[in-house]
Structure formats: structure tokens, C-alpha cells
Known about the structure:
- The chain is α+β, with helices and mostly antiparallel strands.
- The chain folds into two domains: 4-177, Lambda Exonuclease, Chain A, CATH 3.90.320; 178-219, no CATH class.
- The protein has helices spanning 4-11, 13-20, 29-41, 114-130, 154-173, 191-194, 196-199, 205-215, and strands at 46-48, 53-62, 67-78, 88-90, 93-105, 136-141, 146-151.
- Strands 1, 2, 3, 4, 5, 6 and 7 form a seven-stranded mixed beta sheet that branches.
Amino acid sequence: MPISAxxxxxxxxxxxxxxxxxQLWVENILTAEGRVMHERVHWQDREVRSDVVVTRxxxxxxxxxGLTGKADVVExxxxxxxxxxxxxxxxxxxxxxxxxxxxxxxxxxxxxxSDEVQLCAQALCLEEMLGIRIREGAIYYGRPRRRHxxxxxxxxxxxxxxxxxRLHHLTTEGRTPAAVYRRECRSCSLxxxxxxxxxxxxxxxSQYLGNALDELDVE
Length: 219
């Protein structure tokens, strides 16, 4: 399963199902700006500075979790130790280097943990691939252009592993969950297809049709 599906799932299980089960995707101004940001991030595969090695679009995979994907950026910074499980050697450079996954998001920090779960899943993949422990990563938000440090503590790791189990369960089940209307629904590019205010909860046929017409702005 794609790592990016975890972000959709934690944010909204119905959004995840519409995208990944029903293959429905509609772009709005927010998704378009986010796509452009990612294209800029991935423009150069690798960059080397004196104290950091930056790798872009790094392939990720976890056989244990059944996940695959790419990291926007993985920064390798000096681990400050000569041995241990916090770093790996890099050819031509002294000492050990610890990987720091960095995810780029166009918008602002969310009230839920969907972005953090996506980033933590990337770290879990890297840990399995490299055989080391990754302590933290970062999310760069386009609004307000600030980097947010994410600690991969036991709580976040547990939430991420539970989300992975839920992802595989819902995929096997193959059923699109019912809508649950929230304030955040208005910014979703699938809003006009999901119709959360019209379809959430138990309603009569007349209530459903009335709400559906309101959603579509039909008089």
C-alpha cells in the first residue's frame, strides 16, 4: 500500500476510500499548489553540503508493514557517534550519518495527526531498510513557511502502526465508509462528490434529497 494513503486515511476514511478504492481524484487550488511545491522539491535528486547530505525522492519500502512510497527529502546529518544504531556510514565521508525524513506540505499544520503519521511511516520504512533507529523527522509547511520537528516517540509509532493495520483491513473489506461532516470538509477537493452534509447520518429520503440539492446549490 502507498504510504501517502495513510495521510488520507487518518484525515478522513471516506476521502481515502474515494481516492484509493474508487479511484476518484479532483484537483482544486490547494492540491494544485501542493503538487507544484512537491515538483519543486523533487527537481534535484541530491545535494551535498558541508554538514548535510540531502537526498530527494528516496524510494521507501517495508515488508513488515506492507508499505511502499517515496520520501520528499531525507537529510543525512552527522550522528556525532562512531558506532551505534543511530547512523550509517556514507562513502567518502567520515563518521556516521543519521537520516532525517522531511515531508513538504503546502498548507498549515492540521488539527489531526495525519501528516505526522505519514512521516512516521516513512521513518519506519527507513529503519527497516537501514537497520537503524530514527529519532525524529520534520514537516515543512508552506503556510507559514516553517519547519515543524516531529519526534518519533512510542505514542506516535503506536498510532502509525494502528493506522497501517486499519489501512490493510479497510482495503481488504473494500467498502467506502459513510460520510461524517466536519468543518474541514469544505477544503476537500472531493467535497462535491462526497456530499458529506447530505449523506452523513440517518436521514429520510426527502431529507437526503433536500440536503443533496442544497449541497449542489440547486434551487
